[in-house]
Amino acid sequence: MNGLMMQQPLLISSLLVHAERHHGDQEVVSRRVEGDVHRTTYRELAARSRQMANGLLALGVSPGDRVATLAWNGYRHMELYYAVSGSGSVLHTLNPRLHADQVVWIADHAEDQILFFDLTFLPLIEAIAGRVKTIKAFVAMTDRANMPAASKVPNLLCYEELIAAASPDFTWPVFDEQTASSLCYTSGTTGHPKGALYSHRSTMLHTYAVALPDSLNCSSRDVILPVVPMFHVNAWGLPYAACMVGAKLVLPGPFLDGKSLHELFEAEGVTLSAGVPTVWQGLLAHVEANNLKFSTMRRTIIGGAACPPAMMRAFQERYDVQVLHAWGMTEMSPLGTACTLKAKHQGLGAEERMAVQAKQGRAVFGVDMKIVGDDGRELPHDGKASGELLVRGPWIISSYFKGEGGDPLVYSNGNGWFPTGDVSTIDADGYMQITDRSKDVIKSGGEWIGSIDLENIAMAHPSVAMAACIGAKHPKWDERPLLVVMKKPGGEVTRNELLAFYEGKIAKWWTPDDVVFVDAIPLGATGKMQKNKLREQLAGYKLPSA
Ligand code: AMP
Q1: Tens digit of pLDDT for each residue in 217-271?
Q2: 186 catalytic per annotation
Q3: Which fold has domain 442-537?
Q4: Nearest to 162 by CA among 99, 229, 116, 105
Q5: Choice from 307, 329, 391 to test ligand 1 binding pocket (greatest atom count within 8 A of CB)
Q6: How many Å apart are CA 156 and CA 146, to the nearest integer?
Q7: Nearest residue to 141 (alpha-carbon basis) of 70, 89, 65, 83
Q8: Identified catalytic residue from 152, 342, 439, 443
Q9: Which of these is catalytic: 186, 300, 435, 511?
Q10: Which in 9, 175, 424, 488 has the greatest CB count within 10 A?
């Protein structure tokens, strides 16, 4: 017997309709590429999204077509999030930090039809315009006054002119909730990037999960500033969650340095933010150097890479900003786990609480996870056994766009689990802790050494700005840990002092064999350390013990 409830597909457009009806006056504030601060409301943003939906029709965009963006976090990008997906086309958020060759490869693979871009990226557009195969028009996300005077880009259109020429009279179409809504390519550290194609249903379910209190905890009383770019897995779902709950949204544009972010946090009364650890490092350095405070920000979500406990401490103990450690991946829309404490942790001392918070957290409802050993057998949730992390759920990829790279689920005998490529433990309370990416694990004498632990310890040293730990070849042990360190400006620390810093903090045999100081650690397009690059750079290096 079926239930007798309405059959309504879960569609992304409903989020904007809700925000417009029930939170119409709520503000969306953006720092524009043009340099000024722009203020709008959900009411206005919804009307302009409908205009843009009509504008897309006028450009000949059909349902299922891929419409690409190369854009920062801003209200026009937000309008496209809804106009493109809401009208049944697929929003493809290209990552502008990639090399032009990669952008061309990805745009061709996705068969993008139209490309919307922020003015910052005009040189990149000029570099790719003659090379991309399927893009029919390029739209500069600005008004006529700011349009590039003489540009080599063919079919260059102006965003505000498209809007002005279109009527806001547009009814969001109703279609199957399984319809594709947006497309993101993985960072692709090996081989070509692969596309994760989200659906309206997966995005909507993910949005509910993101907003929950034990998850990213978003409410109408929040002022949310996603530092995580809208081209990095849909800014972790915050542009959708903000509409769902009716939160004020603050979008920082290209201004992601510590000073600009801090000014915006203070000016707009931001309560909740989100970003990768490398961004927060710049912010903390600025706040520390200038003796500043956060007057309204009380929570920040840190994910995308392991959050060093030293950073957590700085935020929580010095600035009264609670850190929420979260884990996920492009293939997971991205949210998998969030590290909120349970009632039983409330009575713990500061150190013990920190040990829990340093973990990547508990599965949010909708994500099922387990760890398996090399033989594929499930390992116990005892906080000690570590194995490859497998996940499944309604917002987790079933296969890559165009079947690229084979079927990821085949690995687990077709049992429907996605292999994350992360190595982790899960404790009895369900808290998952990543010890490594499987390809970054250091194998010493047949045992695994988790590089993240070693990096976290080094990062707690006051002179260390960034630390990466990689496996260096060793004739006896196969690999031994090598610590690569970028010092803080003016920071003074020697190799021996750093190695001594590990004493008593980990098993002795885990201590790195050597330290190499570098001017910079290579970062990828989403702000994560690129250990493969580092391994290439240090290919000729020989351990003193080898
Ligand atoms: P991406 O798809 O580019 O977002 O990368 C996903 C990968 O980033 C994951 O598989 C993890 O290896 C890593 N990652 C994400 N969040 C965390 C975290 N909180 N701690 C450690 N690694 C993380």
Answers
A1: 999 999 999 999 999 999 999 999 999 999 999 999 999 999 999 999 999 999 9
A2: yes
A3: GMP Synthetase; Chain A, domain 3 (3.30.300)
A4: 116
A5: 329
A6: 13
A7: 70
A8: 443
A9: 186
A10: 424
